[in-house]
Amino acid sequence: MRQQGFSYVVMMFVVALLSIASVRALEVTLTNERRDKEAELLWRGQAYRDAIRDYYLNSPGTAQSFPAQLSDLLYDGRLTVPRRLLRKLYHDPMTSDGQWALVRNDAGKVIGVRSLSTLKPLKQAGFPPELASFTNAQHYSDWNFVFQPN
Length: 150
Fold this sequence. Notes:
The protein is built from one helix and three strands. By secondary structure, it is mainly α. It has one domain (6-146).
């Protein structure tokens, strides 16, 4: 008679262990998903920066110019042979609506993009030299993918 309820205590212990394991697995999954989105943000931001650079450097004539809007990167008809600097306009993977904040110069032309996300980046170091300013950023919105001519 003294062993009544022992199975119940063991089952409660097993349920507690399973709950802890499930929560930990969920945390790992969410962190991995965020890392994937962060890598996608880096790739897409660099694609925009590179397209803006190509648009600027391949301007016709001697006056180089930046695009007025992102859609100018989809079809650059300024030259005799039109160019497509981007296949499509990429969405910001870190925000729910996918909108970018445009970085403009004094003339109002687009020189880059940045995320609108206020989350703290998981990646804090180990960036390539052209993205060295991203080190220890407090928010994804601090990651400015900007082309600045020399």
